[in-house]
Amino acid sequence: MCPAFGGLRVLMRIDGTQVCMAADQGCLYGLTFVSHFYVARRSIVSPELMNVQISGGTMIDDLRRTIESIAADPSVRFIPVVSTCVAETAGIAEELLPKRVGNAEVLLVRLPAFQIRTHPEAKDVAVSSLVKRFGAFEKPRKERSLAVIGEIFPVDAMMIGGVLQKIGVESVVTLPGADLDDYAQAGQAAACAILHPFYERTASLFASAGVKIVKGNPIGANATAQWIERIGEALGLDPVKVRQVAEEERQKAREVFAGFSNLKGSVIVAGYEGNELPLVRLLLEAGLDVPYASTSIARTPLGEEDHELLAMLGTEIRYRKYLEEDEQAVLDYSPDLVIGTTALDSFAKERGIPAIYYTNNISSRPIFFASGAASVLGLIAGLIGKKEVYRKMQEYFEG
């Protein structure tokens, strides 16, 4: 999958957006499929750049005409110009593109695959570009306000907001957001919580503006309590109240773990979303064995705490992984369950091992706080319990 897919998911979910893509016809075809499948049938508009336009020097003029035609629709408030490999190789001069046409803001977002390795990192590029352009950093900081960075689901955002309200946080804005105003408000936050380790550019942008950065996420008992305490410290909240709420949430998660005390088995986690290691931490805390974990992103300072903990507990960790490495891990460790990519899932099922697609089964459900732990562990328990069924299916098809 082209990495630009991740950036498109961020940009196209903003209300009033119409993407203008600077790409050749092949890229346009593939990414249009993605935009319709993953972003609720939203279309891409493009001048369909070909070699003759690029070599003839008409690319910028074609883009400007396309932007103006999009802006003729008064309902369009934002036109991200997404440039992929061919256009970036030819060179797009940002200063030759308008910053605003009619009612619409125009922003160039560079997402070439030769520069950006994975779609999670393309999300980081998109979010940081939006924050840099629209973030109201020049305005006074809002005390007790928090920006949360991480692609999460509405129920997670509600849970985070509810818990943080208990400790005295007065406003929370979550990015990627559905409104350009979210990005403006994020620039006024007093602190920024980075939930996923691949948001390096975004974290650096907030830090350079003097915003306090909070690492980690509320996954599992211990990390949840630690995360709440870090938020309290960053915002200067009442430490007694913060510790009280942190302990309450820690105990709730421990009660969930106690309900799964009989859950045993080994699990391999091998996704490409970039948020795999926090899931591994949750599984280990629940008493499961995770001998191997892999992710598509690079090792980052934002994920270093998870890396050190998992390595200490014996998990083999691979960054920038290849399918062949994941398949070898399945052969080496013979797990009871594989949570991986579609190709790895097929490889595991052929060997009678239960397997599910990481993106559709983990990234599509709550994972934070006690309720998230209960959701994930309930899924895991049901799958491990079906190992004999998978073996019977294997025998049936082999026969």
Structure description:
The chain is α/β, with parallel strands linked by helices and 399 residues long. It folds into three domains: 113 residues, Nitrogenase molybdenum iron protein domain (Rossmann fold); 115 residues, Rossmann fold; 139 residues, Rossmann fold (3-Layer(aba) Sandwich), CATH 3.40.50. It contains 18 helices and 14 strands. The chain has a five-stranded mixed β-sheet, sandwiched between helices. A five-stranded parallel β-sheet has the order 12-11-10-13-14, with helices on both faces. A four-stranded parallel β-sheet has the order 7-6-8-9, with helices on both faces. Helix 13 links the parallel strand 11 and strand 12. The longest helix has 21 residues. The protein is globular and about 65 Å long. The protein starts with a helix and ends with a helix.
Outline of this structure?
It is built from 18 helices and 14 strands. With 399 residues, the chain is of the alpha/beta class.
| Tally of helical segments | 18
Major β-sheet annotation: 5 strands, mixed
**Helix/strand structural class:** alpha/beta
Count the strands?
14
